[in-house]
Amino acid sequence: MTSIDRSKAIAKPLSEAPSEAPLGPLINPARLRMIAQCWMVIACAVYVIDLLQQTHDGLSDGIRRPFGDDFVNYWSGPFLAAHGRANEVYDFVAFHAFEKSITGPDIDFYHYSYPPVLLLLMLPLALVPYVPALGVWLVGTWYGFYRALKLTGYDGALPLSLAIPALFVNAVGGQNGALTAALLGGGLVLLDRRPVVAGILFGLLVYKPHLALMVPFALIAGRRWLTIAVTAATAVTLIAMSVAAFGIHPWLQYESNLSLLRAAILENGAGVSHRMVSVFVFVRRLGADVGPAYALQAACALTAAFFVARSWLRDDPSPIRNAMVIVGTCVATPYLQDYDLVMGAFVVAWLHMEDGRSPIPAQWIRLAQAMILLLPLVTAPLGKFLGLAVGPLFIIPVLVLLIRLSAEHHRVGAHRFQAGS
C-alpha cells in the first residue's frame, strides 16, 4: 500500500464521522436543508416587516431610518451626480439635506463614504425612482453574487445564495455586500478560465479597495501577470472616467472626508462598532488605544498576506487558495462589517469541496463553515449588549483551518487532493 493509499484509508473514516461525532446532529444534510428553508421564510418575513416600518412617516420610520436604510446613500449619490451636483455628494450637510428631501426629515445622519468611481458605476440607478430602485439594487446585486457562486461548481449554490445570513443582514441594511462578493468571488472563480474577465472584476473593486487587500499578494505570488495588468488598467480607467465625468473636485472632497470618517466610524466606533468584525475593532472594544490596535491589525495583515502568498506560490488546490484570499482579507482589513461577509458563501462552498478528501476530520471543516455562516447573526447582538466585537474569534480559526488544509495537501501530495476532482 502506498503512502497515498494509506492516507486515503485514514481520511475516509475521519471524513465520514459519524453520528457519534460531537457535531453529528448539527451537520445532518436533511436537517440543514430544513433549517435553511425555515430561515429563508423567516428572514423574508422579517425583512418585509422591517421595510414596512420604514414607511411610517413618508419614506422613513419617523425616528431615524429611511426606507431601505443605507440604500439612500447609493441612490442619492448617483442621482445628484447625474444632475450635475456631484460636489454635493461629499458635502455632509448638503447631501444629508437632499436625502431628507427624498425620505422625510427624521432620519439619522447618512453620508457617502465611497470614491467617485462608485457614482459612475451606479449612474443607471439614477434613472429609476427611489422605491423600485431599491428592488433593482437588491435583486441585481444578489443575482450577480449567485451567478458567481454557481461558477464554483457547488451544487447548492442557489439555496446557499439565498439562505446565507449575511445576505439578510445586507438586505436589511440596503448594503453592497452582495456586489462585493460577486466581484471578489467571481474574480477568483474565473481567474484560471477567464483571466481578463477576472482582472476586470478585481479592478471594479477600486470602489472598495480595503476588501481587495489580499488580491495583489495572490496574483503576484501566483504569477498571474495578465490579470494583474487588466486589474490595474481597469482601476486606472475607472478613476480617469470619473474625473472626466465629475471633475477632480469630488475626489479632493472624498480624500478630505476620509480622515474624518476614519476617526469617527472606525477609531471611535460612532454608531456602528457593534457591527464591526475586524481585529482592529476587536482590540479597541477590549480597551486598547488606537496606536496598539493599528499595530496588531498590521501584524495580522502581514501574517495573512504571508499565508495567502505562500498558498498561491505553492499552487494549492483552487478551493484552498481562493478561500485563503477571502478569509485573509477578513483578517487583514481594519474596516469590516457584518454585511461584508456575504463573500463568506464562497468560503463555505470551497470548504465543502475539501470535506471528504482531506485527512482533517469533517466535523472541523463543517464547524468552520458554520462559523462563517453564523458570524453575521451574532455580531450585532453581542456587540450591542455585551460590548464585544467577536469577529476575529470566528474568522481566525477558519484561517488556521485553511493553513492546516494547505499543509496536509503538501504532506500527502497533490495527487490525493486531485483524486476527487
Task: Describe what you observe in this structure.
The protein is mostly helical. The chain has one domain (31-418). The protein has helices at 3-15, 29-53, 71-82, 92-103, 116-121, 130-150, 157-163, 165-173, 177-190, 195-204, 215-221, 225-246, 249-267, 279-285, 290-313, 318-332, 344-354, 362-385, 391-412, 414-418. Helix 18 runs antiparallel to helix 19 (391-412).
| Number of separate helices | 20
Largest sheet: none
Can you tell me the overall shape?
globular
Q: β content, as a range?
A: under 5%
Q: What does the secondary structure layout of this molecule look like, with pairings?
A:
Elements (H helix, E strand, L loop, with lengths): L2 H13 L13 H25 L17 H12 L9 H12 L12 H6 L8 H21 L6 H7 L1 H9 L3 H14 L4 H10 L10 H7 L3 H22 L2 H19 L11 H7 L4 H24 L4 H15 L11 H11 L7 H24 L5 H22 L1 H5 L3
Helix pairs in contact: 2-7, 2-8, 3-4, 6-7, 6-9, 9-10, 10-12, 11-15, 14-15, 15-16, 16-17, 16-19, 17-18, 18-19
Structure in a nutshell:
The protein has 421 residues and is mainly α.
List keywords for this structure.
globular, disordered N terminus, mainly alpha, 421 residues
